[in-house]
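Private note to self, pasted from the team thread so I don't lose it. Backbone tokens:
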């Protein structure tokens, strides 16, 4: 299995002994994203073979999972200038985590694949605040998003 470790450039996936995937074998990965429109989740299942300049990526399936009106309203309620409680934010995190998991499951099913065939799932949650590295913040950017990948 892999572990996530910090580096000066961000986070990277580190494989334990005997667990690094064979680059010559096809690896299935799911990508999930909810954009700034906050209207739903886009999911993609891709097959990757090779590495570096020899890497080939093929889209296997894609899926859109729209948010219902209640979820959209809850998301809008955490953007400035709204104030929200830790309870409200935490409950929304759980809702979004379940929706991201559902979107991943649905794109895997749509492709006729099995969850155990998927090597990794990557997600970009809903951005609440983004301040890229700059002179103003001493090159210490910050990014805050909703969506609990655990």
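Design output:
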């Amino acid at each position: 299995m892999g572990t996530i470790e910090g580096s000066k450039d961000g986070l990277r996936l580190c494989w334990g002994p005997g667990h690094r995937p064979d680059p010559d074998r096809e690896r299935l990965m799911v990508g999930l994203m909810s954009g700034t429109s906050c209207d739903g989740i886009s999911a993609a299942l891709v097959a990757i073979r090779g590495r570096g300049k020899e890497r080939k990526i093929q889209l296997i399936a894609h899926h859109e999972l729209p948010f219902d009106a209640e979820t959209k309203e809850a998301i809008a309620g955490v953007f400035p200038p709204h104030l929200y409680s830790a309870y409200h934010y935490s409950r929304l995190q759980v809702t979004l985590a379940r929706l991201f998991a559902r979107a991943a499951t649905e794109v895997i099913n749509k492709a006729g694949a099995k969850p155990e065939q998927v090597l990794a799932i990557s997600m970009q949650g809903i951005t609440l605040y983004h301040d890229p590295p700059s002179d103003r913040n001493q090159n210490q950017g910050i990014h805050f998003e909703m969506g609990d990948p655990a």
